[in-house]
Amino acid sequence: MLKGLIFDLDGVITDSAVYHLRAWNQLASEIGIKLPPEASDDLRGRSRMDSLQVILRYGNQVGKYSDDELAEFAERKNTAYRQSIKAMTRDDVLPGMLQLLQQARQQGLEMAIASASKNAPTILHNLQLESFFPEIVDPDSLQHGKPDPEIYIAAQHLLKLNADEVISFEDAAAGVTAIKAAHQFAVGIGDAQVLRHADYIVPTTAQLHLDQLEAAFDHQFQGLS
């Protein structure tokens, strides 16, 4: 029986992924790396330090910098990102998401955020969505980033639910892999080929309807709970 929903933030609740990518591209340029278009997908859903390693691999610069220099790069990127998200408002919630959250609340479903972003509380505040998410996984409490399932298992535990009682939402392949490794029902939002391992895929958030999600979830877990 469906009892809870777990959401990635960037690219799922709001398009703050655009701000992340812009800040990473700015940093990459500053250290002499030109990122190819496919880097956008590689960077989605990853922690700050994992993202930095992806960028360094594209520029053949892995191992070139000290830990202190890497920390400075990550902070430089985050400073640019934090500055850009100050302008976010309720209007930046992706199409269909507010309605989905409202319907979920009306049905008594528990909800949590499973995002690698340390800025999730700030973003939710700016979007005026704090009340929907009393539970937010703290990235600093984790040992592993996506595609490891740790963050989705942690969110599930915050909700005090079992894996077969939640639906989790992602827009990145690494995130879908994490959800499936946690044995949860995965909803992919975006390119069907990139997200092909998800249990349910829609091209945009506007196609997310709670009744259809529940029907797909019930069909998969029929007879298992």
Written overview of the protein:
With 225 residues, the chain is of the alpha/beta class. It has a six-stranded parallel sheet with strand order 3-2-1-4-5-6, with helices on both faces. The longest helix has 19 residues. It is globular and about 50 Å long.
Shape: globular
Strand order of the largest sheet: 3-2-1-4-5-6
Largest sheet: 6 strands, parallel
Low-confidence stretches: none
- Helix coverage percent: 40-55%
Topology, element by element:
Blueprint: E1 4-7, H1 17-30, H2 39-43, H3 48-58, H4 67-85, H5 97-106, E2 110-113, H6 120-127, E3 135-136, H7 150-158, E4 166-170, H8 173-181, E5 185-189, E6 200-202, H9 210-221
Parallel strand pairs: 1-2, 1-4, 2-3, 4-5, 5-6
Helix pairs in contact: 1-4
Question: What labels would you give this structure?
Answer:
single chain, about 220 residues, alpha/beta, 6-stranded parallel sheet, 9 helices, 6 strands, about 45% helix, globular
Summarize the structure.
The chain is α/β, with parallel strands linked by helices.
